[in-house]
Amino acid sequence: MFKKILIANRGEIACRVIKTARKMGIQTVAVYSDADANALHVKMADEAVHIGPPPANQSYIVIDKIMDAIRQTGAEAVHPGYGFLSERMDFAAALEEAGVVFVGPPSPAIESMGDKITSKKIAQDAGVSTVPGYMGLIADAEEAVKISDQIGYPVMIKASAGGGGKGMRIAWNAQEAREGFEMSQNEARSSFGDDRIFIEKFVTQPRHIEIQVLADKHGNCVYLHERECSIQRRNQKVIEEAPSPFLDEKTRKAMGEQACALAKAVGYTSAGTVEFIVDGNRNFYFLEMNTRLQVEHPVTELITGLDLVELMIRIANGEPLPFKQEDLKINGWAMESRLYAEDPYRNFLPSIGRLTRYRPPVEGKTARGGIVRNDTGVFEGGEISMYYDPMIAKLCTWAPTRSEAIEEMRLALDTFEVEGIGHNLPFVAAVMDHPRFTSGNMTTAFIAEEYPEGFQGVTLDEPVLRRVAAATAAMNRVSEIRLSRISGTLGNHERKVGDDWVISLQDHEYKVSVAADHDGATVIFVDGQKMRVTSDWQPGQSLAKLTVDGEPLVLKVGLIPMGFRIRVRGADMKVYVRTPRAAELAHLMPEKMPPDTSKFLLCPMPGLIVKISVEEGQEVQEGQALATVEAMKMENILRAERKGIVKKINAAPGASLKVDEIIMEFE
Question: Would the pTM count as exceeding 0.85?
């Protein structure tokens, strides 16, 4: 077995590989850029080598710098993780030439399957059903429009070397094809150093289902069942699960066997994933093969009990697979929620900054018999950089059934504390409660269809609001009792704790009385409903773990005047707990209106101005492109919300702006 492995990556996946290597008794080497000098993967590794400036094209994807780090440390093998150099044939070839083992497939397999254009041609030649498209190289935007017209809209524009949702656009007309080609090419060049683009028909109402394969150097290949990856935003996966709620055993077997046949056809070894589009009739079409470990591999590990990183290392060491296809059963159900540094209330725009609070749920067995797992590459006090992918963590849960796995995820998301940056925890929590998701009836268009105006927060159902009202009434009682016991107060100003309160939240108002005892409190609503609340929460704690009517309830808690800021199940709300007289007076208070920013174009995220598309004095129409902002390697076009005239332009290309800085003003 190898004595030392270098991980040619960063963040969560580098930490993930280090954990398994440590378990196997293998020393690890981390590489890092200036931006990652204090990163978690650097702290976890046995050794660390600095490889350059923050931009990936000056550090993590510079092959010569990785090779220098290998020579400095004497690493015998390299695990590439995902992204960066993981699917670069020239990197695998350089390692082979240097006598260093690549923990992945051989370079010819990467060349033939890692490139999306080549892999589609091979799949077609092998008789695999593929989505109609143009597999040749496309010279410019005008040719892209002609090809798109011939295929028929909508079309998918993809970077050949793409991954992680970068370099991908859906175009519904010629103008979008032109813009999409240019933006995909720019993103691909920036992220992968390869700006080749291809175009294919976009299949409407599709499911994205992928098959995990494992192949050794002795001719054995197995499939580890499927993952459902249909919950996507901008072609970037957000929630994954295994198995799929849609497949039957016959389709699963057919897809798995086809995936293995394709792997064998190119001499594939190591872990790999064959992605399919599946329609409503369970017809499946080859999409692409990822010749690396997938981001979402933990859900497969949870339902099979296997460690894919360990198996990759053992395969690279020449060991045969220790099991056969018939040994691989599906055990229970697993969910994965990707926690991204992006603000769902600002149309999911990237958010960067310092994690002032980062407290994931406790990993391991839960009180309900499930499992919680959190794969992460960050820590409290660490910084989310603008230079890399915005993923903070992958929160996973397992349970015997799908509904139980979803409930475990709900509680885990409610327990997860993240402060200091915008993040998508509220959104993934909302999805977990969405009836269409819980029914399993979803496609890759789920987010676009269910949240067409973006995410505006969650309005909780009335029964849930009552549980929150009961919980906050009991919590307020604890706070009031503590205040009444403050020493040194004037003798004639004794604070009395009343029993009657009015709880106001999300346009609902509940009149309650609280009967407290040593073990908890009984909250009695005016209509006679009673709820028993128990908890060990104390004022000042940011997380309240309660039991309301025998069921667990986890609330993120902040203090506001006369109440709490409560976050639960994707909702972020102010909960006021007032005396009856204070509640009566509160109805007379005027509501403060937000400031009018309609005459300004504000930068919606920290980012770099790539392009200003208009001039001062120019008349613009609704929907017209005004500026392009790049953040975390993704380009975002800012468009006019209404017709107007540009009065002043405050920012120029190359400027680095903060959130809500003014880009331009309108008359």
Answer: no
- Whether the CB-CB separation of 609 and 653 falls below 8 Å is answered with yes
Residue 552 amino acid letter: P
CB burial of 10-21 (b: ≥16 within 10 Å; e: otherwise) equals: bbbbbbbbbebb
For residue range 135-191, what is the model confidence (pLDDT) as tens digits?
678 889 999 999 999 998 989 998 887 666 678 899 999 999 999 999 999 888 888
In terms of Cβ atoms closer than 10 Å to its own Cβ (0-12, 13-18, 19+), residue 55 is middle
pLDDT computed for residue 484 by the predictor: 67
Residue 538's CB: how many other CB atoms inside 10 A?
Answer: 11
Per-residue pLDDT reduced to its tens digit, 349-377? 788 889 999 999 999 999 999 999 999 99
Taking alpha carbons only, the member of 295, 303, 367 closest to residue 338 is: 295
- Give the C-alpha distances (Å, rounded to integers) separating 258 from 225, 396, 423: 12, 28, 38
What pLDDT, on a 0 to 100 scale, did the predictor assign at position 162? 66
Contacts of 325 (CB under 8 A, 6+ apart): 222, 223
Q: Return all residues near 140 (Cβ < 8 A) that are at least 6 apart.
A: 181
Determine phi and psi for 42, rounding to 5 degrees: -70, -40
Q: Give the number of other Cβ atoms within 10 Å of residue 314's Cβ.
A: 18
Beta strands (DSSP E) in 561-651 are 563-568, 571-578, 600-602, 607-612, 619-620, 625-631, 634-639, 644-649
Tokens coding 659? 């959130």
DSSP letter (8 states) at residue 591: P
- Catalytic-role residue among 187, 288, 296, 336: 288
How many separate helices (H) and strands (E) can be counted in the chain? 17, 40
Q: 551 an active-site residue?
A: no
Rounded to 5 degrees, φ, ψ at 277 are -100, 130
Q: What is the DSSP letter of 347?
A: T
Q: Any idea what the Cα angle at residue 633 is, between residues 632 and 637, rounded to 5°?
A: 95
Cα–Cα distance measured from residue 663 to residue 150, given in angstroms and rounded to the nearest whole number: 39
Q: Is the dihedral of CA 323, 325, 331, 332 positive or negative?
A: positive
Strand order in the sheet with 4-7: 47-52, 27-33, 4-7, 77-79, 101-102
